[in-house]
Amino acid sequence: MHHQRPLPTAQTSLWQNYTEVNDYLQLVTDKTLKQQAGIRLVDFKVLQILVESPEAQTSQMVRMGHLSQMLKLSPSRLTYQINSLAKSGWVEKVSVDSDRRGAGVSITDAGREIFETARSIHKATLHDLVCGNLSKSEVEFLGAIYSRIFDSIDTHYRERSYN
């Protein structure tokens, strides 16, 4: 005898839709960046922080610990990532003057060049796949919802000291 599964709740359906969209969007964005700019999405995210973060703009580098937090990567995973980017000539490791043990990362001219190329591709891809299909008010509404979800996750994460 065949049993029908109960229909998913609205929350289960929301979660399934979110994860499918997020995974698919990252996959398509990664493939597009690789094909059109020769850079992976994870590499793009690192370079983006090295260009756009307030720390990078004031000191021309970002501390490894801060980069790890921003990217939600373990220190060992980040070290692997930075080594890979350094081999490509896109970043360089630097010492932090105020902290002998501290390590930082700065973007090279070649890294800035690849980032600028990738940034326009990334922006166009997100517009084509996400924002171009939504009204301005839907984009604003979705942005507000994601901010609230992020804040909730961040509070939960920090309160439980997972890091």
From TrEMBL:
GO terms for biological process: response to stress. Gene3D superfamilies: Winged helix-like DNA-binding domain superfamily/Winged helix DNA-binding domain. One of its GO terms (molecular function) is DNA-binding transcription factor activity. Residues 11-151 form the HTH marR-type domain. PANTHER family: MARR FAMILY REGULATORY PROTEIN, TRANSCRIPTIONAL REGULATOR, MARR FAMILY. This is MarR family transcriptional regulator. It comes from Rothia terrae.
